[in-house]
Amino acid sequence: MDKFMKRAVELAVENVRDGGQPFGAVLVKNDTIISEGVNELHKTFDISGHAELLAIRRAQEQWQTNNLSGCVIYASGEPCPMCLTAMYFAGIEKVYYCASIEDAAEAGLGKSKMIYEDLKKTKSERTLSITRMPLEEGQENPMQLWKEQI
């Protein structure tokens, strides 16, 4: 096993022993660890406190950029849809993981699998109700304002 994946799994094991979930992540660029994270939901009561997101946040803060192109994530578990989306936005180019979404579901952590399945459905069929509410007539349009400023 790769040294970076070993570190991600080691972080996950330590996190379980600390009362957290079995997820650790290592962000790497040019064969160097840039940042690390573990799921901190049990400490911060922040549902977005996933290992991958924390590693991404720490690197972005350290480098003062949103662009993490050239970086690779090593994660003890397959990224959930939220973490995967953040990786796309950050420009991360590769992800390696150990445990699959199915492995996580078998361990009692099935939310990610459910979300991936739900996202395959049309908006009207999804578990979470999503409704568009158009701007009122005469209301300032933030998208138009953005478009004019770029």
Number of helices: 7
Gap between N and C termini: 45 Å
Query: Approximately what portion of the residues adopt beta-strand conformation?
Result: 15-25%
Category from helices, strands and their pairing? alpha+beta
Structure description:
Helix content is 43%, strand content 17%. It is of the alpha+beta class and 150 residues long. The chain is globular and about 55 Å long. The N and C termini lie far apart (45 Å). The mean pLDDT is 96.
Quick summary of this structure?
The mean pLDDT is 96. The chain starts with a helix and ends with a helix. It is an alpha+beta fold and 150 residues long.
What descriptive keywords fit this protein?
alpha+beta, 4-stranded mixed β-sheet, 150 residues, 7 helices
Question: Helix and strand layout, with pairings?
Answer:
Layout: H1 3-17, E1 24-29, E2 32-38, H2 41-44, H3 51-63, E3 71-77, H4 81-90, E4 94-99, H5 101-106, H6 111-119, H7 142-149
Parallel strand pairs: 3-4
Antiparallel strand pairs: 1-2, 1-3
